[in-house]
## 1
Amino acid sequence: MQHAAIADQPDELHDPQSFITKYIWSQDHKVIAIQYGLTAIFVGLIALVLSGLMRLQLGFPGAFDFIDPSSYLQFVTMHGMIMVIYLLTALLLGGFGNYMIPLMIGARDMVFPYLNMLSYWTYLLSVVVLLASFFAPGGPTGAGWTLYPPQAILHGTPGYDWGIILMLASLAIFIIAFTMGGLNYVTTVLQARTHGMTMMRMPLTIWGIFTATVLGLLAFPALLVSAIMMMLDKILGTSFFMPALVSLGESLDYTGGSPVLFQHLFWFFGHPEVYIVALPAFGMVSDVLATHARKNIFGYRMMVWAIVAIGGLSFIVWAHHMYVSGMHPAFGFFFATTTLIIAIPTAIKVYNWVLTLWQGNIHLTVPMLFAIGFIFTFTHGGLTGLFLGNVVIDLPLSDTYFVVAHFHMVMGVSPIMVLFAAVYHWYPLITGKMFNETLGKAHFWLTFLGTYAIYLPMHYLGFLGVPRRYFAMGATDFIPESAQTLNAGITVSALIVGVSQLIFLYNIFWSMRHGKPAGHNPWEATSLEWQTPNVPPRHGNWGPELPIVYRWAYDYSVPGAKLDYIPQNHPVSEFEQTAGDHGEGQ
Amino acid sequence: MKVLRVLREKSWLHEPVAAGEAPLYAGPDTSAAARTALRFFMIVVSVLFFLFIITFLSRSQYPDFEALAGAPWQPFTDPSRLWFNTAILACSSLAMQLGLAGARKQKFNIAVVGISAAVFFSVLFLLAQLNLWQHLQSMGFYINTNPANSYFYVLTAIHGLHLAGGLAVLLNVVFRLWYYNSPDTLSASLQLCTIYWHFLLGVWLVLFALLTSQPDTINALAAMCGF
């Protein structure tokens, strides 16, 4: 039985009437996306400030009285958790997922708009609960973003009481929010594609978001299970993860639980989480590269297969985060092997991005600069991952700055480079205005070179054996004094990069009012989101009739075509068909 | 396989469809969308319980773990109370099926009776589970006295919460029927609720089997999982 979606029903049933229904309790995917985006950027800025405070202590130890060992650990923990979960996951899936899915597949909205709205408000609640821990007795947890028991809930760890409880509660709420949103994204992609939009005609952005959402739906339950069980260990004294132990000279009531069990659960979530962040970024960067190089993405089918393969493999590599926890050598071998295997589809993607640029008509716009920057930072972070994926190399490097440098390059800087590329690329669509190109380029160079100034030296500190998470080094024979000089340099770079993000914020807010009108499809892109009758798209996206899709999303520079792009909703003429079929073998 | 066929499509080769030939597309089928969402939701819930069960089996191999069945003093050596609760849940599932059959045949009296009975039995099941908790506590089996107890409370609580969530959705369906008076969408909604009820009965049967397993069975399962 065919039912009309809510967004397809007559306007009087669904069109928002008041300010409240239009901008606050909105069910429009675009408004919800912006709500997600602004909230995520807000908490992300808090996490950025926290990282600045951390770096002040590391670069200039003892110079700032308000940073003590406890607050330092709290900054580290909250910085990590906010950046990974509440910024990256929320912005990539809640923000871009919400905005792009209906527009790119030719739908009017998500299939469950009310659930979508509920998802955002639940996410906001999780953020409020998380931030409340800053004001709770004892402050937020300082257990590290991995929250390993037993120390996470024991005396001696900052925020061992309310801090950890609020963190676990916030995570549980976030997972509920994500599940509501995730079910919506997956269902919308599977069920609401417009006529002609086959799965393999979807832009890679949608493939990345779709696969990452499936990963999230399967991986977040592991975090939920561990959060529930640790919460019970903390509040009701169960012994899921807590071993029998003596704390402060006192024998505790816990009996024989397994901290390693928590680690397995955490990383069963934690490693797919890397790809929950990375896959949407992979997809978006592919579209930005193709559009600004005026060339079809190289090996589209292989790119889709690689996304799917990476998604599948990401569930069988988790224990490479646990080599130092101890495991049977055969398991170490297994997880090292799977980790190296996942490098194959990942490398295919990198080659294909580079080959997309090869002989392309490259326009060095701001989004393109960030996209090319991503190829550098991701390759760099990926290659150091090959070192850490091997057991024998990981053991000496574990818990050093090498690891910090690796994961910041691969899942900190790289997705954020793509996020900037994506914001600049879709800014004209979202706001109807162009951003300031000069400010955008200044932002790119400061960020790109600045992140290298931060993370490249960190690898060397890691080789020297400088451990992560230490408040201060103290007297250590094997680390030369020059390491401290390097640390101070890293801090200066980090502060410059941090402050340079104000250029970005200024640019997006200033341009909203003062930017030049973007007009229709300023990048001359082929994908559907640029083909809406109005810019920015209005409620319902498409006017009276949904678009019909005739081709894939990468018909750039088709031989014989009048323009160097043919939108997806452009019918196929006989001539184009011949030219397209002969010109673009994959 | 359909998935492989989809992934093999060469989308850069154009379909010979010209303007005006493609049919107009009115929008997604919301019933199909709801079915897809329910399937994914059941997968998510299955993963959740699967992970709990895996940790249960892993934790069972530590020396302080005492299974809740086997020895005469363990509460589920005689699982008659659990069988009773299971029967209640099965009745609610059957009642849902009855309600669905009524809705499909446009016999709304039967549908209302079925839904009411399902709500009644579901609430009764939740109360019976709470009563079982009290019974265990009166016997000294508190949540923190043994990991097997902890798992019992946690698994029953999570299962109960999912049933309570299902009840909220079901009541929403009833409310919509009453408020908007749109019986034609009832059977589609009720079908999804019924599938979910059967699913939760299945989950409960797995949990029941696990929680009343004797130590030898648990050890064998744990060994099969490599613990």
Note: Chain A touches chain B through 74 residues (CB under 8 Å).
## 2
Amino acid sequence: MSSFDAPEWLRHSDSYSPGADADRFISKSIRAFLRVLSGLERRPEPKGRTPQPALFLTADFILLLLISLTQSRGFLFLAATIELVIISAQRPAAIAESLKAGAVAAVFTVVIFLPSAFWGAFSDWGSFLRVPFKVFLCAAAAALVPATLDWPRISLGLSSLHIPDIFILVLDLSVKYIYLLGQLALEMLYALRLRSVGRNSGKTATLGAVAGSLFLKSREASVETYEAMECRGFSGSYHSRRHWRPAAMDFAASAFIIGIIAAYIFFRGRS
Amino acid sequence: MHIPDNYLSPSTCAVMGAAMLPVWGLAIRHVKQEISKAKLPLLGIGAAFSFLVMMFNVPLPGGTTGHAVGGTLIAVLLGPWSAALAVSVALLIQALLFGDGGILAFGANCFNMAFVLPFVGCYMYKLIAGKAAGSGKGRDYAALALGSYSGINVAALCAAVEFGIQPALFHDAAGQPLYCPYPLPVSIPAMLIPHLLVAGVVEALFTVAIVAFLRRVEPAAGVHAAEIKTKPIFILMAVLIALTPLGLLASGTAWGEWGADEIGAVESGGRALGYVPSGMEHGFDFRALMPDYSVNGLPDAVGYILSAVAGAAILVIVFKLIALAKQDRTGRAPAV
């Protein structure tokens, strides 16, 4: 067998080393897209461990509203305790998510409010920390919704709260397409990074092209979605008026709503 | 610019939410009229697009990056009413799923980013571009850049005003702020300086880059923001000018009115009554940096209105001069 004669240029190794190029904005964009995609891929609680979505959303909203309204430290500590109990009943991943959201928001608030403390806008640490503490409670409570409910259940909850169908249709479509278009954008960003060997001065301009392609793609997708809707006879209205039997968690959520409002009224005007 | 919960009082949030209700109602009506049923999915997919636009990090001089909001872009691509709906939905998903922006503050965030931003941006674009809108000429792109730049900055100003009225309107009996502690003279420069210097530039760069790409690749993409009338912008400007002394009136009356019904809390709180934060008077004096909007010998409110009228007039003059310069250049030397 005669040996294969490779051409001269193929036989010696290349000494090409690409010049350094900054592409931090691509990495940051990729990270932002990954955060969104992984956020939408969350695994929710199994059914039965959470109350009906509508009750869950109502309870969460009332808790946020009362925490924000109250000026009583007593009520704030009561609400914090109840919230911690609720959080502690979740699975570990949801606990971490909820506490992390609260902690990040609270630390951010402390940093934002520090200059005002040096000015003397607050007379003691207690009143300085009031807002960051409320921010912690609210952010943690708000983060419980995505940590325990998946999107279909959130949109079911919204529809039983009599939010107009057009809103829910738009919301549903958005969430699905954030995922689809997000993946598309991610692929284009990876391609942009892979193809930018060495210095690529046109990279910044390409970012506009990536987003522009995304827009063209989304218009195409909207036409296709409409055709698919028409084919399947879906007019965009939701019929989810199923009868449900209240479960133990639903009674617990109702008791929570009544109890927290009663506590708010009780603590009103007290310090 | 995403306002978290507890930075604004619940009553401010309620007012902003109430202000958004007619906007949403009108938006749905306009969209139903303008957009055929076949384009209904475009709303949801437009919302997905506007959500994703906020994920792009744009490189800035100096090695940093910033992300755009894209409100003006969506308004120019889909029309301002569709943009109002699309950005609202994007904001709702951010608040519900990602914790960006508060749930109670949703109305306020929508007011700033889904109403003020796209409308100001879009009308400003139309106003400056004039007949050049959609032509792809230099004036058209300059109008896009200026439109998106002013859109995001006016939105930031609205957020700053919402923050700034909190300490005057909502404080406990000891005068300590219950929500955002920064008054208008602090919140306005704190919000506006980064937006004027960084975020506005990012927004303008990104908007122009995308529109330029779309015009090159698919000229029929409908990048012209048709059916926009410029008359409402003048009415809006007049209303805004008339409303400028509102902050002044609010801070003037609030202390007396709000102090009275909170006296009960003083007695039980029992601390720091009548405390005057000396740091506030002797700390940073922003009035040295910011011009004092009062005119000698006139009531403050009149001074405010006059400053607002003068400011608006200066803006109109600047834009007209820019338009004139553009006209001259295109008149003498035809487009290259």
Note: Residues 45-191+213-267 of chain A form one domain.
